[in-house]
Amino acid sequence: MGQVINRLRSLPFPLRLIITCVVGLMVYFIIGRFRDARAEESYRVGKGEVIESIVISGNANAADNAKVFSPTTGIVEELYVKNGDSVTAGTELLKVKSTAMENEKAAMLAQYQTAVASLNTARQTKITSQSSLESARTLVINTSLAKQQMDERRNEGGVNPSTGEAYKQDEIDGIISAYESAKIAFAAAEKKYLDADASIAAAQSTLNAALLEYQASLNGVIKAPIAGVVANLAVDTGDYVRAKFTNPTSASEGEPVLRILADGAVTIMVKLNEIDIAKVATGQHASVRFDAFPEKEFPASVVRVDTVGENENAVVTYKAYVALGEADDDRVRPSMTATVVIETDRLRDVLVVPNSALTRTEQGKVAVRRVQGNGAVTVPVTVGKKNGSITQILDGVNEGDMILIPSAE
DSSP 3-state assignment of 234? Predict the structure, then answer.
């Protein structure tokens, strides 16, 4: 080795540089081929199971979640329940004493009575309008029949039975005019009749609002609308509460005094895009993990899928609901964020390879490197379903074939 080095040193510098580069390149390629050989390992193609799924976030909802509002504006006088209490529909929850003055109560009562009278007037107007409509309808029928008879007699060369002579022009014009006027009168009567429905609806709406405002001035006892468990109790004895009115944008809109959570399965609502919704159907298996305690996985299933989507900022989404198979964990609460995995397809006993075994040919086709003799050849394959780790192979390799995949090292 020393003699070789001495000979190299005795050579002219340019020649010595060329020889050094050539030797370096040879060493580089030898090491590269050695690394390539160690960068791949063989894998025997076999059969397995491919589970296709969708992973998406959602929020927990109770099976039924009733907000309870006070019908009275005033002071909470008595509380009959506390958070966690079980109640049935109609159970008394709390009592509210109105803070309205007597003159305010009288004014609201008068407003309510006026609304009642207006509704009765609107209903009576409709009855009168219906009578006028029927009269107008009868007139149209009669004038139409008179015109039809006249036309038939004239076509047959007949005479006017009233005069015994041929129809004169003023008689013809009179019959036609009567028919046209009857049609106009009917249209007006029909519009008045239809408008009566709108008047009744408006009067009913006014009455409902007046009734709520009048009730808000009276002492009241709030009762449970459904059976369930009391939650989110927001008031205590002595607190001031506002009644809830019909206008949700009103500045005096009351807040819920509590909620009642009905017994039943907890559901997770998720929003799916147009591609994913086509894969989801009721009855599919799912699993749920909550961000608050991710160590526990809840079995679940898809119980409902919306057929009509919602357009939000030019993006269409569809709601789907996943019900937990078990909800005995007291930590699960409404509105908690969860990660939902919906199993959309499951293929058993199919030919599979690791995703890492897939590559691309120069033509852009999916392929694998199949072992052949002491080397390997790239063969195109047809793929089917896949998940995060394996892919179904439909054609290109057979069970038992050896392929190369990148080494995990």
Answer: coil
What is the pTM (predicted TM-score) of this model?
A: 0.45
User: What confidence category does residue 340 fall into, taking pLDDT thresholds of 50, 70 and 90?
Assistant: very high
HSE-CB at 307 with a 13 A cutoff on CA atoms is 0
Dihedrals phi, psi of 121, to nearest 5 degrees: -65, -45
Q: Which of 385, 382, 409 is nearest to 398 (CA)?
A: 382
Is 35 a residue whose pLDDT tops 50?
no
Angular region, 116: left φ>0, alpha ψ -120 to 50, beta rest: alpha
CB distance 225 to 244 below 8 Å: no
> Quick one: which H or E segment has residue 154?
helix 102-155
pLDDT digits (tens, 9 = 90+) for 275-303: 999 999 988 999 999 999 999 998 888 98
Hey, is 46 helix, strand or coil?
A: strand
Collapsed DSSP state (helix, strand, coil) of residue 84 = coil
pLDDT at 209: 87
Report the amino acid identity of residue 11.
Answer: L
Q: How far apart, in whole angstroms, are the C-alpha atoms of residue 209 and residue 244?
A: 10
Supply 397's token pair.
């390799």
CA distance 255 to 330: 26
